[in-house]
Design a protein that fits this description.
two-stranded parallel sheet; mainly alpha; two-stranded antiparallel ribbon; 13 helices
Length: about 260
């Protein structure tokens, strides 16, 4: 009888709106197959998204700054044609930021910041903590205390350095990068570089060569686990030095 009278079989109340999430200048753009590329790039409507319109609304209206991004649909409606947020006059809606995996790095940390900071007027606001503009969303989230510090990981490396050889430490360091997701990888590198490079510093006086050898070892361990050095905030291997990587590889094979 329910089906005969065409009663609704299910409903969502209140409605849920998926909120777009993108890092600066990386938003999705819709276009026809016959559109001219220059026109697509220049098209103003393609540059204005739910997120950038959220920033614009916060610039224009001070009262809007009290809301988090996910709470915006409760108080504003999205006009897809004008690409603007307008004050809500009736009804109710819940906003949900689309999912971002930790492996997406900056997009994940952008989502984290938007979930905790109300009233940003630009991406720069999200990068800024205590009047300091940080280069990445991860750094900004770390400074805001939204990410756990890496003290426990640092202590793990300190304890391991007391009884492990440097090669084992380099393997442990690579394992931490992949499975423990440290918040500040470069700081962890700087803090433990002496322990990671102890054996090579005894064999070689060149600072660049020692760093290259350590990074090459870590690269090898990362590749065995399906990652590369470029996936992490670490120094790059300096190919412009006189150090020959092939000679180093042959040396490693002949060294017990």
């Amino acid at each position: 009888m329910w089906r005969i009278f065409s009663f609704a079989l299910s409903q969502i109340q209140p409605y849920v709106m998926a909120l777009q999430l993108h890092i600066p200048n990386k938003q999705m753009v819709r276009f026809r197959y016959d559109d001219i590329m220059t026109d697509i790039v220049a098209r103003e409507s393609g540059k204005r998204t739910m997120l950038t319109a959220f920033f614009d609304r916060n610039k224009e209206e001070e009262s809007a700054r009290q809301y988090l991004n996910k709470d915006f649909p409760k108080h504003y409606t999205w006009n897809a044609i004008a690409r603007r947020w307008n004050p809500r006059k009736q009804g109710s809606m819940i906003g949900r930021l689309v999912y971002a995996n930790l492996a997406e790095e900056e997009r994940y940390y952008l989502r984290l910041l938007l979930s905790h900071i109300s009233g940003p007027t630009s991406f720069k606001d999200l990068f800024t903590v205590n009047s300091i503009v940080y280069p990445t969303f991860r750094k900004a989230a770390l400074e805001r205390g939204l990410i756990e510090t890496d003290d426990n990981l640092s202590q793990c490396l300190v304890k391991a350095s007391l009884f492990q050889f440097p090669k084992a430490l380099r393997r442990l360091f690579a394992t931490i990068l992949i499975y423990c997701e440290p918040g500040d990888i470069r700081k962890l590198w700087d803090q433990h570089y002496d322990s990671l490079s102890e054996d090579y510093r005894r064999q070689c006086e060149s600072v660049n060569r020692v760093r290259n050898m350590v990074l090459t070892d870590i690269t090898s361990f990362l590749q065995s686990m399906g990652e590369t050095l470029d996936d992490f905030d670490l120094p790059k291997i300096n190919v412009d030095t006189t150090y020959n990587l092939e000679v180093f590889v042959r040396y490693k094979r002949n060294t017990p």
